[in-house]
Amino acid sequence: MSQHMFRTVDLGGKPVRVVLGFDRRLDYVFCFVEDEEEDFLYSNLDDDQAGIHQQDVSYYRLILAGLGIIVPDQMFTEVESDQANRVGNREVDYTK
Predict the structure, then answer these.
(1) Would the pTM count as exceeding 0.85?
(2) Helical ranges in the chain per DSSP H
């Protein structure tokens, strides 16, 4: 599984961690957003439009925008590459 992480804040200024990635074993892209207590603010597994059948990582751009969260575009590009090349065991943190 590849994981591309970014720490930022949501609309209310609350610290969050965003993870986008590709699960090679189950063959799907995923996204989740969690707060400092590791409570999920969003998970693809709770989203009927995503679940484990969502194959377009760009779908999560609107989800994140709705939460007031902006992540580096490179995260989407790298997850698309991971998916195309079936990459696993990769972790990248984009937080500066």
Answers:
(1) yes
(2) 59-66, 73-85
Torsional class of 88: left (φ above 0), alpha (ψ -120 to 50), beta (otherwise) = beta
* Residue corresponding to tokens 């925008």: 65
DSSP designation for 75: H
Q: Is 73 contained in some domain?
A: yes
In a domain, 94, yes or no: no
Domain of 64 in residue numbering reads as 2-86
Q: Which of 78, 41, 43 is nearest to 60 (CA)?
A: 43
**In this structure, is residue 91 part of a structural domain?**
no
Count of domains for the chain? 1
For 36-62, what is each residue's pLDDT tens digit?
Answer: 999 999 999 999 989 888 889 999 999
In a domain, 95, yes or no: no
**Residue listed under structure tokens 């937080």:** 95
Q: Hey, which residues does 32 pair with through a beta bridge? A: 19, 43
